[in-house]
Amino acid sequence: xxxxxxxxxxxxxxxxxxxxxxxxxxxxxxxxxxxxxxxxxxxxxxxxxxxxxxxxxxxxxxxxxxxxxxxxxxxxxxxxxxxxxxxxxxxxxxxxxxxxxxxxxxxxxxxxxxxxxxxxxxxxxxxxxxxxxxxxxxxxxxxxxxxxxxxxxxxxxxxxxxxxxxxxxxxxxxxxxxxxxxxxxxxxxxxxxxxxxxxxxxxxxxxxxxx
Length: 211
What we know:
This protein is 57% helix and 12% strand. It has 211 residues and is α/β, with parallel strands linked by helices.
């Protein structure tokens, strides 16, 4: 009986010591995590720059999800411009989440039943939200993009599935041929092509657009 009690006491003591060690190890981790969380809240509330980058990171993650989550459906009709209607819907929800509101002006100037080229002042990945607003309004529409974007999978695969035309900027002759073929498609099939252009602006003065 004495041996049993001694064993139980030793066993209970061991459990208490073990629990005590685990608790002692968890407390610093919890304090550290809480401190980091409070620091992030403070930085985001005090810094406009921090809030911008936090929103931009959130945007990048969400836009990737919005573009790729519909890939299984787009695989049923590859290279169909209508595939972009699904990701564009998701991108419009992201605009709402980020508190962005868009106003489209001049839509009455769009000629119906005729092909056209839409030139966009491309500045950053945020322009994808603009494309999401334009896409359903232009009906038959596609995008011209640099070839490097195709290799940014799975986003590049989604771009290919909704009919993006990729241009090899390092091969001038091939790029010109692609653009000429696209122009022929615009004229014969009466589709619209969105052509992003990087327009450099400094101190309110913009350089001329070069095609």
